[in-house]
């Protein structure tokens, strides 16, 4: 066993070293079969082949012929109808026709699936060597061979680490469908082939008689021909409809490639029926005639299947879009031979046509093929001048499924890891809302509109990077010259995935269109000589042209969808590029990130009314709804061009993929969409929208037409320019300026799309958070000298602090013997992160109806004073404390002279002050200024720390002395070392990221609302660094959240996913301050130095009673390395971190909040108020008892309680005017008229109870004006058997059986509750106990 252990350790050590090794030779893996082979039943020796006949579907696709009886594995195509719809391809028909007999099929892939596992080399401790030979027992415990070391090196190079390789293999295995369950699917497809080939032709019939012809042929059917709503044919149309058996049946999509990935909603097995060319005429590509004939053909097939006895029980519905519908076959679920429900798949039947049916030049993106408004009568109406690129691409796409399948198959054959890399890309995209498919767990998955075929597009992008690009830039070379491939066939799946993500993150689609390299050897000849490349760049903003040069693969993608894909790629690559100990595998592949609330800075819900447009844009798109969505995004991109990185339209994935019955006569349009906005920081809040100069007449007219004459006006600017502009007037409140983008969206939507909006149709998610961290207006007007929201936010208190510092520096030397060196702020209110903006309290009105007790809260801001070094300072700790007190008294007296009346000053001692003989800092000067703000001044003396460290290190000191010195030293470090540094860090970040302040305030508000206060549970500093990590960690700084609600939801998600028991949270503060907007904040070289203190902290506190969270900033590592303090050298947030119970409770709440946000379905007219109330409403049912407090004496109740009752303070108010005298005589206060900085009766009461009953109960209280205290009994004292009685047992005890004389006792809960009520007389209104 010792030898075995040594062997395992040797290999593990080698793996760790090779994970960080330099480049090495990439091993080649054996080719993995990616196409299903058709062999006859006797040759069924491959468990992965579902259809084994002597033919190959891919060869059949090339030959363009029908598949014979017994097709190959019916493959679970992960792609939906649009995956195939997007599969474009090839040149003329000759490229896909076989020269021999249609039964002479060639196998495209001769490898055996059973050999694919040999690609996994170098498994440590395995029973076989790398060459497959079985090892002896002696060999199992031998040192690694050179071959094994090389394999381990390659694993580190190809997969980052062996652990990542194992995770990828496990995930690929879990998302790959089990082909062993596809036998019923094979039977379905066999019968389907026989059925469609046996359908008797329907002779040419008029449009008017088409439905009758189907009913006559299939009397039992009830099928409505799916013409679509955009351009249905007229009954007197001059062309006829007919049906003939398909020229070929092809299995297409991702199943033959073996890149189908499981989805919650199931897989798609795609089958293409090739319509005979004899059914069409030369000009059928115009005016929707092709699509009308296609719809009739599909309806005939639907009628045949739905009435077939062979396919009885199979459910048949319509799917796809309006212009190119598909047939969807669902399993009967009757456990018959046709029940393939275990495979969780659906068969989708697509219609195709021969590649040479229409001349490619006539379907170029720059051509117009919808010539009249009626869309079916060429003689009527005037020609529409606008090109119809999407209409043209729809026709071409129906001919390119087989060519693209051949192209991807050849790529997969050349690159063994291609299929696994494609699966990784598909899973990655699905988790982010790209690609069709909905969830089945009740949550709502948001789909990025237009990206239903994202999985196919990403597969083609991966193939493109392996083949290279045909350059279209004449500066780079002549047309047709191929650029070098960016990826290589020898790469591993991880390397291919990383390379693809890197390319997506960095490529500029807007200025560099992409033309995939043609593949003549596979029949994909470029059509660039017939379809000009300039047409693509002229008609599309984002271009990715397929290898045939026929269609833009991003045809249905809006620019915002492409920009969102690249945004997600940038975020993912930042995680892949992280050199820290976390591989981010879960964030990249396992966690669903399709919820837009976690992606965008602002989210708007828009309700739409059904509309039908007759313009060219509607005819070019698949439906009027699609045209509307595209137009909406174009308008918003124009309006927010300089304010947003991008704007994206989203819709429910379930609604987008909804199936329709065969007799459905209408197509459902989305009744509601969502708009996602990613802002450009403070640029989004600009007041002025600059337009063109007055001299540019055309641009000025366009500007006025877009914005409207009522808002676009001519203005002269300071630099002398005279130009058109739009000015968005705002009031003094910061919230009004933050709402400018919302006003712009409402304005342009109503102006340009008012006909499709349903009433008050636009609701913004951010609007629900407005007011959560603001005092009610009635309180602001009555109790405050000024409204901070209207006077620059935190600038009021900052100005008061600056004025105080100037006054302190101006104190005469004869009154204050030492000169002030620095005055350092250490308060959330002075760094912009306090939950509520400090407001100037009307101190003179305290205790009057204008400022009642419930609105008398006066926050106090800590300031640290450092005076010049002097020999006047004593060298004794007790004397130093006396010196501080004397110096503060002199400062107070001098300030009284400088400031005059209205200032209140007093020397204050801490609650735990020892008094005479104390060696710890415990005295301060509290100042209440006439400006309405309060400050607490403390004095820092560096000699104090030196003396305390000497006592702690003195081995001759008594234990009591060392204990007192240790306690005093810890307090000194917290107040004078960590607190100022933490303030400086956070203040710098708030300046760098304007949204960080509001994010932190919302996060604190949420935590406190759930009864977790600062003193007993979660400190402010920990929450501030947690919020900061969202802005600086692993994210390009230019893409950090730009709004408070976006940062808040991101912080909730980080908290929900943080494994705080096993990992410290590294916050790259310094890196973020120094980095550019394009860089991500990284705590470089900090990981190793921070892990050791983390381990020390866990060792010293295994129960996590003090430091459940270990939060570290990158600029602390040097201090930690240079000091001998261990984990104590780290941040104040770590020193005061929450206990394990509080950390677990907070994480549970965060997970519930994230689930609530993700599960919201956008109903109720997009109103988010109910969501916000649910997020911030505490649950009180789990507490054992509740103490209800009197809100009239709670100083924070009126300005801060989240659901305050206004009648409590408004009933005694004299009115809204400050100069209006009170009608009531005498004082109306229980707290007095003297200002009490930082005093909160409820918080003081809770702290008192915690000190008295720490062994018996745990209390929870919302310090932001909460009027309920929740309590939990200590479960150890509530057990039925009780505890054995002993003197000084430490809690209020009673006999277990209720009789005296027993040995065991338990907690006397009734007596404790009575004591609590007695101690809270005047404050506690009533007590409720769950037991009662």
TrEMBL record:
Entry coiled-coil feature ranges: none
Name of the protein in question: Nrap protein
Family: Belongs to the NRAP family.
Record region (Disordered): 1-130, 360-384, 1082-1101, 1212-1234
UniProt-listed GO biological process terms: rRNA processing; tRNA export from nucleus
Gene Ontology cellular component annotations, sorted alphabetically: CURI complex; small-subunit processome; UTP-C complex
Keyword Transit peptide annotated: no
Keyword flag Nucleus: yes
Comp. bias (Acidic residues): 40-56, 69-87, 98-121
Span of domain Nrap protein: 269-413, 417-591, 597-753, 789-990, 993-1177, 1181-1327
MF terms (GO), sorted A to Z: RNA binding
Annotated localization: Nucleus, Nucleolus
Biased composition (Basic residues): 1-10
InterPro entries, alphabetized: NOL6/Upt22, Nrap_D1, Nrap_D2, Nrap_D3, Nrap_D4, Nrap_D5, Nrap_D6
Alphabetically ordered keywords of this record: Nucleus, RNA-binding
């Amino acid at each position: 066993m010792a030898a075995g252990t040594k062997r395992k350790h040797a290999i593990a050590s080698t793996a760790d070293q090779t994970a960080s090794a330099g480049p090495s030779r990439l091993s080649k893996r054996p080719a993995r079969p990616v196409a299903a082979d058709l062999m006859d039943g006797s040759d069924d020796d491959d468990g992965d082949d579902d259809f084994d006949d002597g033919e190959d579907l891919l060869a059949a696709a090339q030959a363009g012929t029908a598949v014979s009886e017994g097709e190959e594995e019916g493959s679970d195509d992960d792609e939906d109808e649009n995956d195939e719809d997007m599969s474009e391809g090839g040149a003329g028909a000759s490229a896909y026709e076989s020269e021999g007999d249609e039964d002479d099929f060639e196998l495209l892939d001769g490898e055996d699936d059973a050999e694919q596992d040999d690609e996994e080399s170098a498994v440590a401790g395995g029973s076989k060597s790398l060459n497959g030979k079985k090892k002896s027992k002696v060999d199992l415990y031998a040192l690694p061979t050179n071959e094994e070391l090389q394999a381990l090196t390659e694993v580190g190079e190809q997969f980052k680490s062996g652990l990542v390789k194992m995770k990828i293999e496990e995930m690929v295995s879990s998302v790959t469908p089990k082909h062993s369950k596809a036998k019923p699917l094979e039977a379905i497809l066999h019968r389907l082939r026989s059925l469609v080939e046996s359908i008797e032709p329907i002779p040419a019939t008029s449009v008017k008689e088409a439905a009758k012809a189907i009913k006559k042929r299939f009397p039992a059917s009830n099928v409505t021909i799916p013409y679509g709503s955009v351009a249905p044919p007229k009954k007197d149309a001059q062309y006829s409809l007919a049906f003939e058996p398909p020229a070929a049946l092809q299995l297409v999509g991702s199943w033959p490639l073996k890149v189908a990935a499981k989805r919650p909603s199931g897989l798609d097995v795609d089958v293409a029926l090739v319509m005979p060319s004899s059914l069409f005429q030369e000009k059928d590509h115009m005016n929707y005639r092709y699509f009308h004939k296609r719809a009739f053909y599909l309806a005939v097939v639907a009628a045949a299947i739905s009435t077939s006895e062979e396919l009885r029980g199979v459910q048949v519905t319509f799917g796809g879009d309006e212009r190119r519908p598909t047939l969807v076959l669902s399993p009967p679920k009757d456990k018959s031979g046709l029940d393939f429900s275990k495979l969780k798949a659906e068969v989708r039947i697509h219609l195709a046509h021969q590649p040479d049916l229409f001349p490619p030049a006539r379907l170029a993106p720059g051509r117009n093929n919808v010539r009249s408004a009626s869309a079916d009568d060429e003689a009527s109406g005037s020609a529409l001048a606008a090109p119809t690129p999407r209409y043209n691409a729809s026709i071409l796409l129906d001919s390119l499924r087989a060519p693209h399948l051949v192209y991807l198959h050849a790529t997969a054959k050349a690159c063994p890891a291609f299929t696994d890399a494609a699966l990784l890309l598909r899973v990655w995209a699905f988790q982010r809302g790209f690609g069709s498919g909905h969830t089945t767990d009740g949550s709502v998955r948001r789909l990025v509109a237009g990206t239903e075929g994202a999985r196919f597009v990403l597969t083609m992008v991966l193939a493109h990077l392996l083949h290279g690009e045909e350059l279209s830039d004449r500066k780079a070379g002549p047309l047709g010259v191929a650029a070098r491939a960016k990826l290589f066939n020898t790469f591993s799946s991880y390397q291919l995935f990383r390379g693809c993500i890197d390319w997506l993150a960095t490529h500029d689609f807007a200025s560099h269109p992409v033309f995939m390299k043609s593949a003549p050897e596979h029949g994909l000849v470029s059509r660039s000589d017939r379809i000009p490349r300039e047409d693509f760049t002229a008609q599309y903003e984002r271009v990715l042209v397929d290898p045939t040069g026929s269609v833009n693969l991003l045809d249905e993608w809006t620019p915002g969808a492409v920009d969102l894909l690249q945004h997600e790629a940038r975020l993912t690559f930042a995680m892949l590029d992280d050199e820290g100990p976390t591989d981010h595998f879960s964030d990249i592949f396992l966690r669903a990130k399709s919820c837009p609330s976690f992606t965008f800075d602002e989210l708007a819900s828009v309700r739409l009314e059904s509309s039908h447009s007759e313009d060219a844009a509607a005819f070019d798109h698949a439906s009027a709804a699609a045209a509307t969505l595209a137009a909406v995004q174009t308008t918003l991109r124009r309006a927010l061009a300089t304010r947003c990185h991008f704007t994206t339209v989203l819709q429910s994935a379930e609604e987008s993929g909804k199936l329709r019955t065969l007799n459905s006569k209408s197509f459902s349009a989305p009744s509601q969409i969502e708009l996602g906005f990613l802002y450009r920081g403070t640029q989004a809040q600009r007041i002025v929208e600059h337009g063109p100069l007055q001299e540019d007449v055309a641009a000025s007219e366009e500007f006025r037409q877009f914005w409207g004459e009522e808002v676009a006006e001519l203005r002269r600017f300071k630099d002398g320019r005279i130009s058109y502009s739009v000015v968005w007037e705002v009031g003094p409140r910061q919230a009004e300026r933050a709402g400018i983008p919302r006003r712009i969206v409402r304005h342009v939507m109503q102006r340009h799309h008012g006909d499709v909006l349903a009433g008050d149709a636009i609701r913004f998610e951010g609007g629900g958070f407005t007011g959560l961290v603001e005092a009610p207006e009635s309180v602001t007007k009555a109790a405050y000298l000024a409204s901070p929201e209207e006077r620059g936010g935190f600038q009021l208190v900052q100005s008061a602090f600056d004025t105080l510092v100037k006054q302190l520096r101006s104190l005469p030397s004869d009154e204050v013997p030492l000169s002030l060196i620095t005055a350092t702020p250490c308060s959330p209110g002075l760094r912009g992160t306090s939950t509520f903006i400090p407001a100037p309290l009307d101190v003179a009105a305290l205790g009057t109806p204008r400022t009642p007790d419930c609105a008398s809260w006066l926050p106090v801001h800590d300031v640290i004073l450092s005076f010049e070094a002097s020999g006047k300072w004593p060298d004794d700790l007790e004397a130093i404390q006396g010196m501080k007190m004397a110096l503060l008294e002199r400062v107070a007296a001098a300030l009284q002279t400088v400031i005059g009346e209205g200032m209140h000053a007093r020397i204050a001692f801490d609650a735990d002050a020892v008094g005479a003989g104390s060696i710890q800092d415990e005295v301060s000067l509290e100042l209440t200024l006439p400006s309405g703000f309060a400050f607490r001044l403390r004095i820092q003396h560096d000699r104090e720390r030196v003396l305390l460290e000497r006592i702690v290190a003195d081995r001759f000191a008594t234990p009591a002395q060392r204990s007192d010195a240790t306690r005093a030293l810890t307090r000194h470090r917290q107040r004078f070392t960590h607190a100022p540094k933490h303030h400086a860090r956070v203040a710098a970040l708030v300046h760098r990221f304007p949204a960080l302040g509001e994010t932190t305030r919302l996060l604190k508000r949420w935590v406190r609302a759930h009864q977790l206060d600062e003193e007993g549970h979660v400190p402010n500093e920990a929450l501030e660094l947690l919020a900061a990590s969202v802005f600086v960690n692993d994210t390009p700084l230019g893409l950090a959240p730009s709004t408070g609600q976006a940062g808040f939801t991101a912080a909730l998600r980080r908290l929900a996913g943080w494994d705080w028991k096993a990992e410290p949270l590294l916050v790259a503060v310094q890196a973020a301050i120094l980095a550019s907007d394009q860089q991500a904040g990284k705590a470089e070289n900090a990981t190793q130095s921070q892990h050791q203190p983390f381990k020390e902290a866990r060792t010293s506190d295994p129960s996590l009673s003090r430091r459940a969270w270990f939060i570290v900033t990158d600029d602390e590592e040097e201090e930690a390395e240079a000091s001998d303090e261990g984990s104590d050298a780290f941040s104040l947030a770590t020193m005061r971190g929450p206990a394990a119970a509080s950390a677990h409770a907070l994480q549970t709440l965060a997970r519930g909040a994230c689930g609530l946000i993700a599960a919201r379905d956008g109903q109720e007219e997009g109103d988010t108020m109910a969501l916000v109330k649910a997020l911030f409403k505490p649950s009180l049912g789990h507490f054992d008892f509740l103490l209800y407090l009197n809100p009239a004496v709670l100083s924070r109740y009126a300005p801060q309680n989240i659901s305050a009752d206004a009648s409590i303070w408004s009933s005694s108010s004299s009115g809204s005017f400050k100069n209006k005298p009170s009608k009531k005589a005498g004082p109306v206060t229980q707290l007095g008229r003297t200002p009490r900085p930082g005093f909160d009766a409820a918080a003081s009461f809770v702290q008192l109870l915690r000190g008295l009953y720490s062994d018996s109960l745990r209390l929870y209280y919302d310090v932001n004006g909460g009027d309920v205290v929740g309590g939990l009994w200590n479960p150890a004292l509530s057990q039925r058997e009780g505890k054995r009685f002993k003197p000084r047992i430490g809690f209020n005890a009673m006999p277990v059986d209720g009789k005296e004389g027993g040995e065991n006792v338990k907690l006397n809960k009734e007596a404790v509750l009575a004591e609590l009520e007695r101690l809270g007389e005047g404050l506690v209104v009533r007590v409720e106990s769950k037991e009662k």
